[in-house]
Amino acid sequence: MAEVESLLHKFGQDAQRIEDSVLIGCSEQHEAWFALDLGLNSSFSTHASLPKSEVETELQGSFIELRKAIFQLNSMDSSLLFTAQALLRWHDGHQFCSKSGQPTRKNIAGSKRVCPSNNIIYYPQMAPVVITLVSDGTRCLLARQSSFPKGMYSALAGFCDIGENMEEAVRREVAEEVGLEVENMQFSASQHWPFPNSSLMIACHATVKPGQTEIQVNLRELEAAAWFSYDEIATALRKKGTYIQQQNEAFPFLLPPKLAIAHQLIQEWVEKQTCASLPA
Ligand SMILES: NC(=O)C1=CN([C@@H]2O[C@H](COP(=O)(O)OP(=O)(O)OC[C@H]3O[C@@H](n4cnc5c(N)ncnc54)[C@H](O)[C@@H]3O)[C@@H](O)[C@H]2O)C=CC1
Ligand SMILES: [Mg+2]
């Protein structure tokens, strides 16, 4: 807190804005960790932005877009930063009560906001998203959206519609995006994902019926989709070097970063194929 106060003071800012901080976790020694939006290039904060390059010089670092940083972060830092990003963005978007129109107030930890005129409590929200790695037994299906980094392919993902359960959402998304009918779904794991807003990514494996593998790519949602063999995927997983290096090596395609749950699904699929090919 003293460090942040001195930083704010140096840039002529009121230390009052420390109260905008949100609790994002704690150390093993039970030291609380808070996040504060300095309002750099963002509309999140009601306070003036701090001068970016001068803050970089002062802190001896450089600011980087969180989406780009996920290629370099470890899982502990990413989890804290993802929570911070999601929570700070949620507070920014819930400054007013949607019933009374009055300004809402953040509690100290930042785990909720309350409308003082009618006591309605607003809690941070996450949108459920299903992410599915479809397999035909020997190949798996990956797709890319035009917004993905150059060359990257991932599993099929989509937001759950209201009233849908996970299984229905998986069936609908796969049918909508590539025109396939899935069967045999198996839950793998879940992950909080802060882009573009807070999502709870629910990851699963699914298979298609043998012989029913012809893809019809929905070009309104995807740029491309294709079946990939075990060898292609295993080679891509073994690829070393930074993302930029890999992109520049003109490798046919890249997989999502290790921190993304899509990477875990792909890794699990490769392990399953390896086990299946071992003699009994
Ligand atoms: N962590 C990971 O491994 C991966 C994460 N993702 C994330 O999954 C999410 C969903 O994937 P998409 O293919 O984009 O979803 P999608 O296939 O449902 O299409 C996105 C569209 O759905 C609509 N939509 C419906 N409900 C929405 C909501 N609650 N919030 C925002 N848009 C909503 C919007 O029109 C949006 O353009 C993305 O935010 C992406 O960042 C995607 C792939 C890998
Ligand atoms: Mg999608």
UniProtKB/TrEMBL annotation:
Q: Name one GO molecular function term.
A: metal ion binding
Q: Where in the cell is it found?
A: Mitochondrion
Per its record, the protein catalyses: NADPH + H2O = reduced beta-nicotinamide D-ribonucleotide + adenosine 2',5'-bisphosphate + 2 H(+); NADH + H2O = reduced beta-nicotinamide D-ribonucleotide + AMP + 2 H(+); NAD(+) + H2O = beta-nicotinamide D-ribonucleotide + AMP + 2 H(+)
- Give a Pfam family name: NUDIX
Keywords tagged on the record:
Hydrolase, Magnesium, Manganese, Metal-binding, Mitochondrion, NAD, NADP, Transit peptide
| Any GO CC annotation of this UniProt entry | mitochondrion
InterPro entries in the record: NADH_PPase-like_N (IPR015375), NudC-like_C (IPR049734), NUDIX_hydrolase-like_dom_sf (IPR015797), NUDIX_hydrolase_CS (IPR020084), NUDIX_hydrolase_dom (IPR000086), Znr_NADH_PPase (IPR015376)
Record EC number: 3.6.1.22
Q: In the UniProt record, does the keyword NAD occur? A: yes
Q: Which cofactor does this sequence's record say it needs?
A: Mg(2+); Mn(2+)
Where the record annotates domain Nudix hydrolase, the positions are: 124-250
CDD domains linked: NUDIX_NADH_pyrophosphatase_Nudt13
Briefly state the protein's biological role. Answer: NAD(P)H pyrophosphatase that hydrolyzes NADH into NMNH and AMP, and NADPH into NMNH and 2',5'-ADP. Has a marked preference for the reduced pyridine nucleotides. Does not show activity toward NAD-capped RNAs; the NAD-cap is an atypical cap present at the 5'-end of some RNAs.
The family classification in the record reads: Belongs to the Nudix hydrolase family.
Q: Provide the protein name.
A: NAD(P)H pyrophosphatase NUDT13, mitochondrial
Q: Gene for this protein? A: Nudt13
